[in-house]
Amino acid sequence: MSVLVVGLSHQTAPMALLERVSVSGDALVKLLHDVQQDDHVAEAMVVSSCNRVEVYAEVDRFHAAVTGVSQLLSTHSGVPMEQLANHLYVHYEDRAIEHLFSVGSGLHSMVVGEGQILGQVRSALRLAQEEGTVGPTLNELVQQALRVGKRSHTETGIDRAGASLVGVGLALAERTLGPIQGKRALVVGAGSMSALSAATLQRAGVTDIVVVNRTHERAVRLAQTVGGRAAESGELTAELAQADLVISCTGATDVVITADMVTPRTMFLLDLALPHDVDPAVRRIPGVTLVDLESMQDGDLVAVTDDGGRAEAVTAVREIVADEVAAYLSAERAARVTPTVVALRSKAAQVVEAELGRLVSRVPEIDGRVRDEVTQTVRRVVDKLLHEPTVRVKQLAESPAGDHYAEALRELFNLDPKVPDAVRRVETVDTKPSKREAGL
Question: How far apart are CA 194 and CA 187, in angstroms?
Fold first, then answer.
């Protein structure tokens, strides 16, 4: 089995297409199960965010799995395959692992270094765990990717050098509004991105923050965390008339803010939702500035903030990712040969026990002390004979062609192919330590 990634992101597709492919809620769960039920897929996880949709899968055949996953993305989104294919990227085995570690570290985010992607990957894994579509391979791989992402942010400060989408949006807002301290801000939505927006506004010195959400209780809870106030969803138009700065990020499938709800005046709207929360026609209203994910896809907009050491941090993160990928692959290859080594030692132990039993039956009068000494001697001889080849095969297994050495060992010693598989199944129980903890 090998790991496959099929997806598209802001780097390969326009936001209009990403908006069509993006899935959430029941649609996301349905896609997750449909992928996992493909004949060539054993495990599946889907990361769907405002600027990427990626399917991670453990597969047994590359071409068949790519075709199946791609077709499911087309079917679920309604985007014809011939149109979608031009924007998809595919990563397999080593490249898939490197891609996931890079994504988790923020290297492929619209704003390099933003930390929200870690939460998105964590949520994707949690959903896949709850739905039973991941097993030991993806579970361990994604957990490691989360650790790598956390290490990258902790050791390099890339999260400080690379502003979040909200931070970039506020920098753009100041181009229109001037300093945002003292301005009235309206946050539409009460999810994780809305919470980040409210917290960022508060840190930026905005003290007049209003939260509107379809579920009023959630709006109240969010508003309380930033010293703001909540308004009913029916009051949205009235609140828009009073706001200088609006940040909207809901899970609605239709626009939440239409052009007829906005009056001509100096006003800045930041739409972080996918699909859009704000009708693009708002841009035609005099004095009103609308920035959404599609316009933020423009590199010039993302670059409005100072570099702040971002280039150095990115280089450092890439080095961390490269080291972590090499370590993971080395441990993975060593772990693959371990069941074969266990099977070999098990067969040797069976041979020893059989021969000792034959000795006792042939020489039943043998002294007990002598018999014990013979037993220990035979076992030591076998252990010494097996020690060098088993240590060596583990070392060789860490090379890119490591699987071949395990195959050679099975062939040379005529090992039952079912035995290594049985050992491998035992190792996948929940109590199994990680590869690094096991010292493999």
Answer: 7
pLDDT one digit per residue (tens) for the chain, 440 residues: 699 999 999 889 988 899 899 888 899 999 999 999 999 999 999 999 878 999 999 999 999 999 999 999 999 999 999 999 999 999 999 999 999 999 999 898 877 777 788 989 999 999 999 999 999 999 999 999 999 999 998 898 777 655 567 888 898 999 999 999 999 999 999 987 898 899 999 999 999 999 999 999 999 999 999 999 999 999 999 999 999 999 999 988 889 999 999 999 999 999 988 888 999 999 999 999 999 888 876 654 554 444 556 678 888 999 999 999 988 987 877 777 777 778 888 888 888 888 888 888 888 888 888 888 988 998 899 888 888 877 777 777 666 666 677 777 777 777 765 554 544 444 444 434 343 333 33
Q: Could you give the CA distance from residue 117 to residue 8 in angstroms, rounded to a whole number?
A: 15
Of the CA atoms within 13 Å of residue 128, those in its CB half-sphere come to 32
Q: Which residues pair with 131 in a beta bridge?
A: none
Region of residue 78 (left: phi > 0; alpha: psi -120 to 50; beta: else): left
**Which token pair is 327?**
């370590």
Could you give the 3-state DSSP secondary structure of residue 421? helix
| Secondary structure E strands in 232-287 | 245-248, 267-271
Closest CA to 163 of 189, 200, 206: 200
Of the residues 21, 28, 50, 187, only one is catalytic, namely 50
Question: 391: which 2 tokens?
Answer: 């240590």
Query: Of all helices (H) and strands (E), which one includes residue 289?
Result: strand 288-292
User: How far apart are the C-alpha atoms of 124 and 164, rounded to whole Å?
Assistant: 20
Distance CA 218, CA 232 (A): 11
Q: How far is CA 17 from CA 51, 299, 420, in A?
A: 10, 18, 46
Across-strand partners of 57?
A: 4, 44
Residue 88 contacts residue 67 (beta carbons within 8 Å): no
CA 158 centroid distance within chain: 18
Residue whose structure tokens are 């990020």: 249
Query: What distance in Å separates the CA atoms of residue 317 and residue 312, rounded to the nearest whole number?
Result: 9
Residue 228 CA to residue 212 CA, distance in Å, equals 11
Angstrom distances, CA of residue 84 to CA of 70, 75, 110, 313: 8, 10, 20, 34
Whole-structure pTM value: 0.68
249 catalytic, yes or no? Answer: no
Give dist(CA 47, CA 22) in Å, integer. Answer: 9
Q: Which of 80, 62, 64, 66 is CA-nearest to residue 21?
A: 80
